[in-house]
Write a structure and sequence with these properties.
Blueprint: H1 2-16, H2 27-37, E1 51-58, H3 70-79, E2 81-88, H4 93-102, E3 110-112, H5 117-125, H6 133-137, H7 143-152, H8 157-160, E4 169-174, H9 177-180, E5 185-188, H10 189-194, H11 203-214, E6 227-230, H12 238-244, E7 257-260, E8 263-266, H13 271-285, H14 292-295, H15 298-305, E9 312-316, H16 326-330, E10 332-335, E11 355-360, H17 367-377, H18 380-388, E12 395-397, E13 418-420, H19 423-428, E14 443-445, H20 447-450
Parallel strand pairs: 1-2, 1-3, 4-14, 6-9
Antiparallel strand pairs: 3-11, 4-11, 5-9, 5-10, 7-8, 12-13
Helix pairs in contact: 1-13
């Protein structure tokens, strides 16, 4: 359905257009720190030999080796298991797993991945998966999952229970105001000052400032290389949603569906949708938006953002984190949602919810131990490590710092919780590392983490 809608809308556009303290610490340091920070289910340590658990996972360009990763080693020591990874190409990972299931191939014990509920349910109905409902009900087994429920403030089991009444996966859940409002645009403030213009408020303002930038040599390199709005991934990306929400509520994450007065409809069926498309067509035609924005992938877009000279005036993304130069990144400020010609001023909102992070297959001979692996992964500290790196190297808890009082939270109502030292290097640079799984697998972070970064 999504591909069909994408095709139809693209045609319309063309036409009308922690490790709980693993990090780089020593083995002794890792063990002693984790004992105080992770809630421990009963392990397999009474057995002399580690239990072998096979796992399928998609490759990550910035993870050196899942088999020797610090997080893997930590799990193996905590649960007395031997995790053996089969790493598949990420480009066709979901289809590869689906083909293996439908063909009746022998599967790894654990399969990590963000599979759609519909796909998981289909696999479950073909008896390819182990139901996890009873494991979730055992508070002595799912100790970190119950702690996570307390941290996020609700029992998320209802969100991950499928139509047959069973739970088949350990979830990913990231509560974050920033992620819930995905379609944000960032504008390069020094150019506003250089051209003596204010940040745009309306769609017409936005057109005027983009036009002024692309027709000038504001970066001073004697080249016509200024980019008005840099985007990627066509109509299913933030730049499109940001612009269209000045005309009609536009939700790219839900195939442009919206609910109004209890009625479900599609945004593109309304007349004002055409007005938005015509506005975007104007921006493209007059060079304010490069045509690459409609077709290029994220990697090409990142190259556009990180040229030697600043060329991107505005771009759409959750944060400016994809800018690798720290000083340049600090000069991009958030742009408020634009008001359209009819006074419409929406922003896309997608509340945080639990989704698939890991499944256990019917081929697994030790499903309870495999479940413990997933439960351990969602502990608070590893849930931070998987996104921000090793504690003590890439981040720290504010409470552990001598100057804790010097930090403030970016969100009202939240106390500072963690300090992240160089997220551009760890997350944004694409550099190879082996201290984190980089969000491959389950994790659960409460609002206080993302909203409490000092």
């Amino acid at each position: 359905m999504k591909r069909l809608l994408s095709f139809i809308l693209a045609v319309l556009l063309v036409v009308t257009l922690t490790a709980c303290s693993v990090g780089s610490q020593t083995e002794k340091e890792v063990e002693s720190t984790m004992e105080t920070n992770v809630k421990q289910p009963s392990s397999n340590k009474s057995s002399d030999e580690p239990v072998k658990i096979t796992a399928a996972i998609a490759d990550k360009v910035n993870v050196e080796d899942f088999n020797t990763n610090d997080v893997t080693i930590w799990i193996e020591k905590e649960l007395n298991v031997d995790l053996e990874f089969t790493v598949y190409e990420s480009t066709d990972y979901n289809n590869k797993i689906n083909l293996m299931v439908s063909s009746g191939d022998k599967l790894e014990d654990i399969i990590f991945g963000g599979f759609a509920d519909s796909m998981v349910y289909e696999w479950a109905q073909s008896d390819a998966l182990t139901p996890l409902t009873d494991y979730f009900a055992d508070k002595n087994l799912a100790v970190n999952l119950y702690d996570a429920m307390a941290r996020v403030g609700y029992d998320f089991r209802g969100q991950i229970t499928l139509p047959d009444g069973e739970i088949y996966y350990i979830p990913v859940l990231n509560q974050s105001y920033g992620n819930e409002c995905q379609s944000k645009v960032w504008i390069y403030e020094p150019w506003l000052k250089e051209l003596n213009i204010n940040a745009p408020v309306t769609t017409n303002d936005f057109y005027e400032v983009l036009k002024k930038v692309v027709e000038s040599d504001v970066n001073g390199n004697s080249k016509a290389d200024e980019v008005g709005l840099a985007g990627y991934n066509g109509i299913y990306s933030g730049w499109f949603s940001f612009l269209m929400n000045a005309f009609v509520y536009t939700d790219t994450a839900n195939n442009f569906m919206k609910v109004e007065n209890g009625k479900l409809s599609y945004s593109f069926t309304e007349n004002v949708w055409r007005e938005g498309i015509e506005y975007i067509r104007k921006l493209v035609k007059e060079g304010c938006i490069p045509t690459e924005t409609v077709t290029q992938d994220m990697q090409t877009w990142k190259t556009m953002l990180n040229t030697p000279d600043v060329t991107a005036f505005t771009f759409a993304y959750l944060t400016p984190s994809q800018i690798t130069d720290v000083e340049r990144k600090s000069n991009y400020i958030a742009l408020a949602p634009l008001a359209g010609p009819n006074g419409v001023q929406y922003t896309q909102y997608n509340p945080s919810k639990a989704s698939c992070g890991m499944i256990i297959t019917a081929d697994c001979k030790n499903p309870e131990i495999a479940f413990k692996v997933g439960d351990l992964l969602v502990c608070e500290e590893n849930s931070i490590v998987t996104r921000f790196g090793a504690r003590g190297k890439d981040w720290d808890y504010i409470k552990d710092l001598a100057n804790a009082k010097d930090y403030i939270s970016p969100y009202e109502g939240f106390d500072p919780y963690i300090v992240v030292y160089n997220d551009t290097e760890f997350w944004g640079s694409g550099s190879m590392q082996n201290r984190s799984w980089m969000q491959s697998g389950p994790y659960i972070r409460q609002y206080g983490i993302a909203n409490g970064m000092g």
